[in-house]
Amino acid sequence: MSAPRTYRRPRGLSNSAVQFEMLPEIAPGVRPATRQETLTVGVVAVVAGFFALSIAARNGLMLLYGDAVAHLAKARGLIDTNTPGLGQLGSVWLPLPHLLMLPFIGRMDWWQNGMAGAWPSVLCYIVSVMGMFRLARRLMAPRWAMVATAFFGLNANLLYLSSTAMTEPLFLCLIVWITLLAMEFADAVRSAAIRKVTGHMLLLGFLVLAATMTRYDGWILGAAVWSVVLWHLVKAPAVGRQVMQGFAVFTILALAGPLWWFWYEHTYSHDWLDFMRGPYSAEAIDRRTSPPGSHKYWGWHNPAWALMLYARTAQVDAAAWEFGWLVAAAALWASWKAWYSKLNKVWLLLWLPLPFYVYSESYGSVPIFIPQLYPHSYYNSRYGMEMLPVLAVFLAYALGELTERFGEATPLVRQLAQPLALMAVVLNTIWMLHQTPLVLKEAQVNSRPRLALEEPLAKQLMTLAHGLPILMEASDHVGAVQQAGIPLKQTIQPSDYYLWRDAMQAPAQSAAYVISIGDDDVAKAVKAHPEGLTELMILCTTNQPCVRIYQSDRYKGGPVR
């Protein structure tokens, strides 16, 4: 038996002129959001997103994360290096975030100030807030869907990340919309709406492709979504037989991202698993940064501690002070209630980041440090943001359930509960901003040593002769080149494979200036081939390697064009 339908008359139209929009009721008081409702939420998200962007730009917060600087450099390298093209994407970070920056990265000022990465992020923020409202409307009444959307969209950490080149806004947008479309797909299968089933499978395929080209947890998400689609088609064989071609296309799209990345790694790095075992992989970085003979970090080969650490990180990312405990408890209780309701169980996809990061901490060389737990420092706290959608949805769901339970005896509770919840969400945001959001605090703390080196180096780079090539291993400190406004094609870096290889054998003949940082490969090349090089300056800062700037007496070329 089909679900009952309600009808909504658009404003401004008479009964004789109206075209009714049929809205199937999922549960009492629960139905899909209308386009007008979604657009209204989108307008509010635009205001919030651009307000956060303006604050971050005015206060110089957009480039605090070294990863944000590196993401921008990867995108810039696609068009501005000695060897532009796909080979500049690197071997660890997946490519979609850098490809989305391409329309903006060509402007030198947008590369320098970080706006090239902020435009895609703020757009993803807006779309994710709209998706959150639509997702919440399929699980709860409108008033509580507004609470879920506000808790998500006004999160101070998310607002900050949406002004940077980090990948979290994009991936959160994909998580929300993939879960929403998977729920709509499941409902379409139940109602045997063949065209809708096929259309949603294709949309899911493209979104899964985007997720698998954004972050590696997208690979797990993609596998889970494929399993959800297959399960529902198997349960409805009559529908499944009619959409087999669509399912085949969906499967190809779901596999395309990982398969393309394996091909890319094999082609450009000569190791199809270079992202897992190469010199820039998480495991290799962890080996370099861990003291010899250390026991790694808490959570290493300890899933119980990793679970506590990741759950605690998600709590602190979501709520101010210690209210994260209440948010997490409410989300767990509401998930249990939703499991036994008539709602479809596809919302379980929102919980996938929890097992993924517990495993990654325990066995994937991905440490997370927050000041609330030993060793009381800052590292990868932003990973807890992936739990924000599930915490937002099920916090609001729990409040709705409690209001229904106690509101029958006290009508005043039913009337005031939702306005008070919205007020609490706003106060939570204000409190987080007053304390400095965890993700922003990590960026501020960890950027100080890097900026202490890059800022004086950038000033010296600006004094060098304009346009002449610079030999420099800039991967770890490309921010100095960025601040100086020097095109990447003016530098010779390891990503310029053949130029770099030749420059290591004859540095003085390859570039007008040679810059070594600590004991890097350039320093080793200078030590092996010092002829023709004159040392101009040494820059040393606390807790950072010394930088040596040399001028070549043998370089015969002209400025880079």
Summarize the structure.
With 561 residues, the protein is mainly alpha-helical. The protein is 60% helix and 6% strand.
Give a verbal description of the structure.
The protein is mostly helical and 561 residues long. It has 3 domains: 1-26, no CATH class; 35-441, no CATH class; 462-552, no CATH class. 60% of the residues lie in helices and 6% in strands. It has 24 helices and 7 strands. It has helices spanning 35-58, 66-77, 96-105, 108-113, 115-137, 142-153, 156-161, 168-190, 194-212, 217-235, 237-242, 244-269, 274-277, 282-289, 303-318, 324-339, 353-363, 388-407, 411-435, 438-461, 478-484, 497-505, 507-510, 521-528; strands spanning 5-8, 21-24, 470-472, 491-492, 513-517, 533-539, 547-552. The strands form 2 sheets. It has a 5-stranded mixed beta sheet with strand order 4-3-5-7-6. Strand 3, helix 21 (478-484) and strand 4 form a beta-alpha-beta unit. Helix 8 runs antiparallel to helix 9, helix 9 packs parallel to helix 12 (244-269) and helix 16 (324-339) crosses helix 18.
Strand tally: 7
For the record, give the distance between the C-alpha atoms at the N and C termini, rounded to a whole number. 70 Å
The mean pLDDT is 92
Shape: globular
Domains counted in the coordinates: how many? Answer: 3
| Main sheet characteristics | 5 strands, mixed
